[in-house]
Amino acid sequence: MTTTTRPALRILAAAIALLGATTLHAAPDTAVTNKQNFSTDVIYQIVTDRFVDGDASNNATGAAFDAACSSGTKVYCGGDWQGITNKINDNYFSDMGITALWISPPVDNIDAVITYDKPNTAYHGYWGRDFKRTNAHYGHFVDFSAMVSAAHAKNIKVIIDFAPNHTSPSSSVATFGENGALFDDGVPMATFNNDVGTYKFFHHNGGIDDYNIPEKVIYKGLGDLTDIDQNSGAIDTYMKQAIKAWLDLGIDGIRFDAIKHMSFGWQKNFIANINAYKPVYSFGEWMMGDANPDPLNTAFANESGINVLDFRFTRKLRDVLMTGTATWADLDAVISATGTDYKRVIDEVTFLDNHDVDRFQTATNTHRNLEQALALTLTARGVPCIYYGTEQYMQGTDGAGTNRQRIGTFDKTTKAYLVTKDLASLRKTNPALAYGSTQQRWINNSVYIYERKFGANVVMVAINKDQSNAVSISSLLTALPNGSYSDVLGAKLSGNAITVSGGAVPTFTLPAGAVSVWQYKAATNVAAIGHAGPMMGKPGNTMTIDGRGFGATKGTVYFGTTAVSGANIVSWEDSSIVAKVPAVAAGKYGLKVTTAGAVSSNVYPEFKVLTGDQVTVRFVVNNATTTPGESVYLAGSVDELGNWDASKAIGPLYNQVEYAYPNWYVDVSVPAGATLQYKFLKVNGATVTWNPNANQSVTTPASGTYTVTTSW
Question: Which residues are annotated as catalytic?
Answer without folding.
Answer: 257, 285
